[in-house]
Write a structure and sequence with these properties.
single chain, binds S-adenosylmethionine, about 300 residues, 2 domains, seven-stranded mixed β-sheet, Rossmann fold, 7 helices, alpha/beta
């Protein structure tokens, strides 16, 4: 059997808390907020928590398997000053951290995306570094360690003129993370370290939740609902459609992409009194955004058109 987490307490369900997060609620006595991006197996994150019990430490990861394993290690280590968020770091810095609130950030061996056509996936782009700058306190610092010379040089270019002083170094192994061990086993024992110290403030406004306008229609032909997606600044793909005649309820699954931000959720079309109400289904944990609004509008359009088909 796979080892499971022992407690979900350190996990923050970011869709369900207020934005930006009031981190002092989780770390009432912390002397600073420290963030590790892409903590992988979590060993370094936990080491930091043990060595700095006065820090509030936030680990950002996209992979659930890494989070699950790290939750278990947190419980076994008994550290209480760590919280984990399953999120793309780009979203985290756009939505979860107030301006000038984070003191330090680590990212060890971030994915280098070496192929030319994949460069757009690299995390430490100019745009991302601007959000990072905005959320750092004056003098706050980012430490990035990589084995990948190209990515290191690319990051130096992206960081230039972004309000940071850059320090670069060749360093020896010292973090004992999975990827550091992997490179050591392959005989690589020098890594590129980039330190960015905030010198000037760059203001990037927080992404705010959008006030959604839900819809209702008087008529709708459930056999003729054919919602069509869109592909412009927002991409909406409709994936599935179910209808339950007994409950008088339709469900449409949509995948929405806004830049790198992906949401996969269901839209409900439910008969209540004399109308069919169109809104995001409960329990999907969406972030109200322009893409969610576009999806609701497209489903409403399809519901209107479904009547045209039947007449
Ligand atoms: C190459 S691994 C390095 C893991 C760990 N730091 C180590 O040194 O072993 C990169 C990690 O970053 C995570 N990751 C990649 N892109 C991310 C993003 N945009 N936001 C948060 N985590 C990300 C991946 O899931 C993966 O666990």
């Amino acid at each position: 059997m796979k080892p499971t987490y022992l407690s979900l307490k350190p996990l923050i369900r970011w869709h369900e808390v207020e934005h930006p997060v009031q981190w002092s609620r989780f770390f009432p006595n912390a002397s600073r907020l420290h963030v590790e991006i892409g903590f992988g197996l979590g060993d370094f994150l936990i080491k930091q928590a043990q060595e700095h019990p006065d820090w509030g430490i936030i680990g950002l990861e996209m992979a659930w398997i890494s989070i699950r394993r790290t939750l278990r290690k947190i419980a076994l280590a008994g550290v209480t000053n760590v919280r984990l968020v399953q999120i793309d770091a780009r979203q985290a810095f756009q939505r979860l951290f107030a301006d000038q609130s984070v003191t330090s950030i680590d990212s060890l061996f971030p994915c280098p995306w070496p192929k030319m056509r994949h460069l757009k996936h690299r995390l430490f782009s100019r745009d991302f570094l601007q959000s990072v700058n905005s959320r750092l306190v004056p003098g706050g610092a980012v430490r990035i360690v990589t084995d990948h010379k190209d990515y290191f040089e690319w990051m130096c270019e992206q960081a230039a003129q972004n309000g940071f002083i850059l320090f670069s170094n060749k360093i020896t192994p010292q973090f004992a993370t999975k990827y550091e061990r992997k490179w050591l086993d392959l005989g690589v024992d020098r890594f590129f370290e980039l330190r960015l110290v905030k010198k000037e403030h760059i203001s990037v406004p927080l992404k705010e939740d959008k006030a959604l306008k839900t819809h209702r229609v008087a008529h709708f032909n459930h056999e003729r609902l054919f919602p069509t997606g869109c592909r412009d600044d927002i991409v909406v793909d409709f994936k599935d459609y179910l209808f339950d005649p007994l409950r008088q309820k339709g469900m449409v699954r949509a995948v929405v992409l806004e830049g790198e931000f992906k949401q996969d959720f269901w839209v409900e079309i439910q008969k209540r009194e004399n109308y069919w109400h169109i809104h995001p289904a409960k329990g999907c944990g969406i972030i109200p955004s322009a893409g969610i609004q576009r999806t609701l509008d497209l489903v409403k359009q399809a519901a209107d058109q479904s009547i045209g088909f039947s007449r």
